[in-house]
Amino acid sequence: MVEHVAHLDAVFHALADPTRRAMLGQLAERELTIGELATPFSMSFAGASKHVRVLENAGLVTRTIRGRTHLCRLEAARLAEANAWLRRYQRFWTARLDTLEALLLAEDEAKQK
Amino acid sequence: MVEHVAHLDAVFHALADPTRRAMLGQLAERELTIGELATPFSMSFAGASKHVRVLENAGLVTRTIRGRTHLCRLEAARLAEANAWLRRYQRFWTARLDTLEALLLAEDEAKQK
DNA sequence: TACATGCTCAACCATGTAGTTAAGTATAAG
DNA sequence: CTTATACTTAACTACATGGTTGAGCATGTA
């Protein structure tokens, strides 16, 4: 919980682009190759490839090279970090989730006993 | 839930900088002037002011001009939008919060009766 | 009135980003 | 062996970003 800071820079930057968010949306359905990720967008192949690279560098996507195709998979851990950061502010927009958080903490304590 | 897309660009971009995230952290404690927001950082006043402008443009901060000082307040609605976007991926990193989500839904249904 | 304070704006610099095209590499298929 | 496919890399353009300094504009204060 200390060098996550650099992660957050990369993750939030990666998420700050609609093309990349859409790519993650696709990857939430199933693993896709670079080509499959590129086709929905009116953009050169190389351009899409660069977006994938950004997602990869942010740790949001992992790549498995299989022959000449590169299979991409959604990697959620860094999304969880971003979510964890945001959760610190949840009390500002709703009290409901505070209750849930309390439930979680209680659950954790129960487990630790 | 349709032109939120542009919001998300701005919000995630604003969050992709450690200085700005730290500023939000300060604003979570209490309202602060631009000067107060600037002092913790080894950066010119004008530089800090520009960061605040970015937060403001992203809708994360509102400003109240009071005499010659500008009071800044955290505005959480856009953070909530970002969180809502992330929540769509929660199932990928934990099952626990799915349960909580189910609880919330059940709660909502109970209230609607 | 004069001066200090809080902040913005404009101009500038260095670097980064998003996109392109073109060429190169490796793998699969004929 | 030859060609098509999947992808990367490099070079380039245009523009955004993060930072600076210096000037300017209100608003307090003496």
Present the secondary structure layout.
2 copies of one chain form a homodimer.
Chain A: H1 4-15, H2 18-29, E1 32-33, H3 34-38, H4 45-57, E2 61-66, E3 69-74, H5 77-87, H6 96-112
Antiparallel strand pairs in A: 1-3, 2-3
Helix pairs in contact in A: 1-4, 1-5
Chain B binds a DNA duplex (30 and 30 nucleotides) through helix 4.
Q: How would you concisely characterize the structure shown here?
A:
The structure is a homodimer of 113-residue chains. The first copy, chain A, is an alpha+beta fold.
Structure report:
Two copies of one chain form a homodimer. By secondary structure, the first copy, chain A, is an alpha+beta fold. Chain A has one domain: Winged helix-like DNA-binding domain superfamily/Winged helix DNA-binding domain (Arc Repressor Mutant, subunit A, Orthogonal Bundle). Chain A contains six helices and three strands. In chain A, a hairpin with a 2-residue loop joins strand 2 (61-66) and strand 3 (69-74). In chain A, helix 1 packs antiparallel against helix 4 and helix 1 packs across helix 5. The longest helix of chain A has 17 residues, at 96-112. The relative contact order of chain A is 0.13. Chain B binds a DNA duplex (30 and 30 nucleotides) through residues 13, 17, 19, 33-35, 43-47, 49-51, 53-54, 65, 67-70.
